[in-house]
Each structure stands twice: as structure tokens, then as C-alpha cells.
Amino acid sequence: MSSNTPRQPTRDLRFFLTVPHACSYLEGREATTLFLDPQESPGQGVYDALALLGFRRSGRHLYRPHCEGCSACISVRIPVAEFTPDRTQRRLARRNADLTLHLRPAIYDPEHYALYARYIRTRHADGDMYPPSHEQYRTFLTLDQPYARLLEFRLAGRLVAVAAFDQLEHGLSAIYTFFDPAPDLERRSLGTYAVLSLVDLARRRDLPHVYLGYWIRECRKMAYKQAFQPLERLEGRHWRRLIPA
Question: In this protein, which residues make up the domain named N-end rule aminoacyl transferase C-terminal (predicted)?
Fold first, then answer.
């Protein structure tokens, strides 16, 4: 069992609820989102505290699900010190050993956007992020803050993936990963390799966790998160071991 309590009080912060809207993950359900007031402009300490309570970042906004009568969205994280890659993950690491990784600030880059647009059009044409646009990309994945970073993956100079993440006091928070959907790269499983790379980066920086956002048991697209074991889930204000199904 693992638990954390926020070091910085959050009681004086203002939050807002969205009106109910169609759930992006479970068909036929409505969702409501709790947002930190965008005017709050929280510092790093507030972000660290809210992340321990299950909040995520999208652009300038910190949010978490707040759906009446539904608790399907579960915050999950990898305890870095306890994580050991399985056989498949070790094979993927060897397969991608020829990639070079570069850390970048989370600022707009036309090369990144071109890859993002191709990824959305190919992999998520049926989702609410389609069609991609420059404005959508900027508001979602760029942020002029020292904790917001991008990790590039290149194959002989060719950009094949980008992982957006934040560095918190208690870990790395994976925001979003997009990659080249070309058939010649399928065997590399670049989404999985990006998570493995963040775990390795967190270990090298002596950070205890990698946050993977929300996991929904009934959502097939989120099933990959269970491959990272052990995994912890947020229950109330405490993080506890998630027992694999």
C-alpha cells in the first residue's frame, strides 16, 4: 500500500464544474469535469498537491472527472522503484535501442505538429480530437512553464514519436504521446516504449512515480496501462496497489 498527502493546502482554491457532456470513453454515458479556476495560475506546489488528488493537466487547465453516479475513471501511477519490465517490454526496449531521445521545452514546433496531425488523422479519426488543427495542438500540448517538457524519439534523424510530460516533485506525469503511424514502425510499439522511457527518466532523476492519467476497466483503449506492473490506483486521498483483473 502507498499513500501520499498534499504538502500544500488546496482549500482556498476555486474550482468549477462543466455542464454534463457526452463521455469520451464510455458510450451512452454523460461526464462532468472539475476544473481549477484558470485565473488561479497555480504555482508548482499547487500542481504537485492536486496531482496527488488525481488532477491532470491539459494545456493551461488542471482537471479531474467529477461524474455523478460514476467512478469508472481511476487515476493510476507506476511506482518506479518496484517496476520491472516484463519479457515483452524488455524485447521492445531492445527493438528500440537504435532510437535517440531528446528533451525539449513544450513549445510549438512545426515538425511536431505535422507528426501530431498525421497521427490523429490515422489513429483517431473517430475521436473528439479529429480533425487536428494548429490551435488545438497549441492549447493542448504547449505551455511556457519549466515543468512542461517534450521527449523526442528519432530514428536516424527522423522524428518518430513525441511524449509530452510534466515533471512534478513526486514524479513524472505523462500528458500525451503521439507517434508515426507508418507500417514500418508498428513492431516498435512506440506508445509503450514512450512509457518505458519515462520510467527510465524518472529513475535517473530519483523520482518515485510515473503518472499515467486515468484508467477505465471497460475501455479497451486504456487496457495497455495494466501491462505496467505493479500499478497503483487512487482511492479517495490514498494510493493503493491495483490488483490486475
Answer: 111-234
**182, part of any domain:** yes
Q: 57 with 91, same domain?
A: no
Statement: residue 197 has pLDDT above 70:
yes
The average pLDDT across 127-131 equals: 88
Residues 54-90: pLDDT tens digits? 999 999 999 999 998 899 999 999 999 999 999 999 9
N-to-C CA span, the chain = 18
The total domain count for the chain is 2
Examine residue 5 and state whether it is found in any structural domain, yes or no: no
- 67 and 84 inside one domain: no
Please state, in angstroms and rounded to a whole number, the distance separating the CA atoms of residues 216 and 25: 8
> What are the residues facing 164 on neighbouring strands?
150, 176
59 and 154 both lie in a single domain: no
Do 94 and 28 lie in one domain? The reply is: no
DSSP state for residue 46 in the 8-state scheme: H
The whole-angstrom separation of Cα 14 and Cα 214 is 23
Strand partners for 165: 149, 174
Helix axes 87-95, 190-204, angle to 10 degrees: 90
CB 151 within 8 A of CB 102: yes
Q: State whether 164 and 50 are in the same domain.
A: no
Q: What is the rounded distance in angstroms from the CA atom of residue 225 to the CA atom of residue 162?
A: 18
